[in-house]
Amino acid sequence: MSTNGSTFTVSNPWRDRILQGEVCSVMSCKFFVSNEVAMMVKMAGIDGMFIDMEHSVLTIRDVSQLVLACNYVGVSPIVRIPSKSHWHLSRILDAGAAAVVIPHCETVQEVKDVVRNAKYGPLGIRGCANNQPILNFQTVPTLVANDLLNRETMVIPMIETPAAVELADDFFAIDGVDGILIGSNDLCTDLGIPGKYDDPRYLDSVEKIIAAGVKAGKPIGIGGIGGRLDLLERFFKLGATWSLSGGDGSILQAGMNKIGQNYGEINGRVQESRMNGKAVK
């Protein structure tokens, strides 16, 4: 957006790609608090960092620094807040989040309230603030900033229960809802099939949400099944565009497990070789 010869933009490459229908990877982060992880994500070719405040002990200060690092290296910071509180929404957005994800949305009114607190007027009542990190701390006229951030930072409710699945069309229809994230594990648990991602009840629920999102022209993300690339590809072909693709803890643990396995196998061969050597003597 331009004003008085100046052009102001929001760097949100993940949003740009999913709105074009491209499939995007997103790494979940709930243990790493060092800014170096943002560059690692960038160099790995991952499009966004999902900073998880719901299932972690990350503080707002921790999150704000990770958000800054993401914005400066060109990775979109997507923050899942731990509640629907207006102060969680506004403080995380003021910290520079490219998208805010709201867990456990159950009713249309809850989602309308979320939008009201997360968007500037006329869509909502979010309080105005200058020197915003997502605008690179530029001085941007309020009218310009409000319109730009309403449009280009994203408000993404989560659907995690069977009752909310039935409201998918209504959620997508709300002005200011920029997409939906499906919480697969909570959804399966509420369906009485925890961890059973091949169950038709889970598959039908996801496909119903995707169909609603495609009809509304809004992006859909899939959470909780990063290891099931077969299902993710199926959902991407139907119209979903992003997933929580892997977590910092699980990625680190997988690498550590591989090291432990490799050295355990080497030790076994070495000990066997030594025993054989003694037997020959």
Automatic annotation (TrEMBL):
Pfam entry (one): HpcH_HpaI
InterPro entries: Aldolase/citrate-lyase_domain, HpcH-HpaI_aldolase, Pyrv/PenolPyrv_kinase-like_dom, Pyrv_kinase-like_dom_sf
Transmembrane spans: none
GO molecular function list: aldehyde-lyase activity; metal ion binding
Domain HpcH/HpaI aldolase/citrate lyase stretches: 37-250
Keywords from the UniProt entry: Lyase, Metal-binding
GO cellular component, one term: cytoplasm
Family designation: Belongs to the HpcH/HpaI aldolase family.
Protein name: HpcH/HpaI aldolase/citrate lyase domain-containing protein
Annotated source species: Hortaea werneckii EXF-2000
Lineage: Eukaryota, Fungi, Dikarya, Ascomycota, Pezizomycotina
